[in-house]
Amino acid sequence: MEFRQLQYTLQIAETKNFSRAAEKLHIAQPSLSQQLSKLEQELGVKLFHRNTSSVELTHAGESFITHARGIMDAVEQLRQEMDDISQLRAGRVHIGSMPITGSHLLPYVLPAFKAAYPHIDVTLLEDSSLHLEKLTAGGGTDLSLLSLPLQEPTLTYEIIGEEKIDLAVPPEHPLAQSGQLHKSVKLAQLADEPFILLKKGQGFRRLALELCKEAGFEPNVVFESNNMETVQSLVAAGMGVSLVPRLIARAKSSELTPVFLPLDPSPSRTLIIAYRKGRYLSKAAEAFIATFQAVMPSHMIEMQKDTDHA
Fold first, then answer.
1. pTM here?
2. Nearest to 139 by CA among 94, 78, 102
3. 3-class DSSP state of 67
């Protein structure tokens, strides 16, 4: 078994197509097919079910891919450790991020990191929190910007900071009227309201449901979205209410802007940088965590003041 055969098999499993896999690997398709057949012959099992339009993993193939990913990740960790031992400043770090949260925080962190470590390459992957947890656990990212609680038990984390959570209501809602503005709202008051939440797989959805449960009710979810911007637009359009992290609460100058009200007691979410337990962290990854921890706390305080209720 050759290392390149692991790479080839992983690419076929990812694309589910020999032509696309060969294109990504920059080799001829017949060569790719030949290498896979050679590997299957050596192993004595079929790794893929082949048909005219795509390929699917066999049971043996699924097991092979799980182990192949582990081998590839171990090789990458070894490479990073050797780079660090040789005291090379060049390196790379793969970062995962929740899209909307990252769009508000990373513009502060990435420039500071690149200024301090200009020869370290950073790649950014944006995805849902649930998918990011799985990717990080499997070595698909070195680090991921997430929020507690985590579902993946193989992950550990460093805390970045606390972010307050507000109630978002339509401008015509009784709680949004002048006499009610700036008054804290008990979440239990919203038990009969229609709620708009993020879809399953988003960490903030889990937190919102937990907060409602603690307040004594299960929310009546009338709309769901993958995007917090869409959630805010639907709230502003009068379709329901929602919970919104303060850092990503839409600016008051935007069109279709909800009214944001503080909650009593005031809930918050904990933002973290997560990575796999026991995984070797390169100097580049450690430097990124240190940069995030140094840059973000003061910015988070100011950003939350900016969106606070005047």
1. 0.67
2. 94
3. helix
